[in-house]
Amino acid sequence: xxxxxxxxxxxxxxxxxxxxxxxxxxxxxxxxxxxxxxxxxxxxxxxxxxxxxxxxxxxxxxxxxxxxxxxxxxxxxxxxxxxxxxxxxxxxxxxxxxxxxxxxxxxxxxxxxxxxxxxxxxxxxxxxxxxxxxxxxxxxxxxxxxxxxxxxxxxxxxxxxxxxxxxxxxxxxxxxxxxxxxxxxxxxxxxxxxxxxxxxxxxxxxxxxxxxxxxxxxxxxxxxxxxxxxxxxxxxxxxxxxxxxxxxxxxxxxxxxxxxxxxxxxxxxxxxxxxxxxxxxxxxxxxxxxxxxxxxxxxxxxxxxxxxxxxxxxxxxxxxxxxxxxxxxxxxxxxxxxxxxxxxxxxxxxxxxxxxxxxxxxxxxxxxxxxxxxxxxxxxxxxxxxxxxxxxxxxxxxxxxxxxxxxxxxxxxxxxxxxxx
Length: 421
Description:
By secondary structure, the chain is an alpha/beta fold. About 15% of the residues lie in helices and about 30% in strands. The relative contact order is 0.12.
């Protein structure tokens, strides 16, 4: 039986997000914690349900276990439906031409049957790794009004930054007349957000015509094909908050923006809620000597020390006499007594023993990946153990079960990398 849906969403969530370094060594980027109790994928999923899109295919590939268990059958987003709802779409073995997803559009092409089963008029293509609130219904209204076959969400960026993006060149009616991928001398400042609405007939035709292209991609193959074959392309301008949390620095900044006195991105709006799967039901506990300022603290966390300008996940323990500043501490992490943490990103289930100092001293370039571990951030991988009374400098990476002997004279100098199995 074919069920008719006006618009379905295809959410690309298979990426590793390698520029997030150790944070994505065991988990897909869309499943990384964000804003305390949330995960990055909660934001596009919440946008879908807030926009009235109730059929979402989530395309997973890299390290999908935590992402799959987080999404489940979609209950937190009201996507547990008999018809539609959320479906996890992983690569699978076929009688011939079996392959991994090799590009954004190839992943969509391999799920033609799923899309066909809803006989949609329109298909919304989304990325699972951006933080934003967007009404896809308004974008669809615009798509219909313009008689478009492809509508691309664009965002004005400063002209000096335009060369970092795919740039759309439009006429006065916002019809796309040309586009350039990371141009040296940009002719426009309208950057593609990687969010597309396709009329189903146009998408299907473009996917079938280009299916044999290696690493089939929307920007490189599908959109140029639509333009070259006379399909009308339009740009829909978005002026709200949108953050690509693709690097450790932008990830840290986006979390810190949540705790501004008047946050640019508000997690607490009644009319546009962000939904998530919550496994913790116990309340927070604050000890008699605790102090907390400008901080998000997740359910089940116990705070006995002092926390300033930080984002703390669920089931975190911060010991007596410990001071945490400008840091992101993810779910299940335990920090002992009398520690000092400054500008730390600690992944899930980290154990930091008593008397540890993280983030002090000079800014020295990281010795393995200075492009990732930078801006003074101390990054701690998931499940890491740090022993008593060690001092760790800035721009460092620590991962694994470390012991006293790993820290000569009780120190790890700034810019050093310590990774153990």
